[in-house]
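# nightly structure sweep
# worker-07 picked up a monomer target from the shared queue
# config: single-sequence mode, recycle default, output format = structure tokens
# input follows
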Amino acid sequence: MEKKNVKDLMVPLSEYATVSRKATLYEAVVALEETLAGFDPTRHRHRAILIFDENNKIIGKISHIDILQALEPRYEDVVNRDSFARLGLSPMYQKSLMEQYALWNKPLSDLSRKAAKLKVETFMQTLTQGEHVDENVSLDKAIHQLIMGKHQSLLVTQKKNIIGVLRLTDVFLEIVEEIKASKL
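# output follows
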């Protein structure tokens, strides 16, 4: 495999949906929709919206699952969202949680209307040290970082400034091409 670096596969920050931490969920989904309208249709669509602070520094992100969870804020009462997916709860137990916490008892239209007004800072994922990778890091080291952190993406830095996003989907497609090329 030709030695590739993170910058060879990253999506530049300018092509990503971004909103202020003070933006509403409505503003965030509109920004994502507008970004996707101008995005290369041959590439996979973005699955996150990056959040910036008052100094235009990226401080967090919201994913599709974060948006869905924002519709029903009582999930925060059930369990910490970072550990919820890893618990391996049985379908019967999950159903009992829905009933016990009255999850999804209101019509989706009501939940959506209320969630549209939420500030993204109330439910965004704040970034961790392990979610950053330098643009010059080799792809194999970035893959290791994606696997170990179970990340869907890494924020690409150049001298501590975020310049892009390395998406798991782009890395996966690159590996698929390498595997196919090895068969020849």
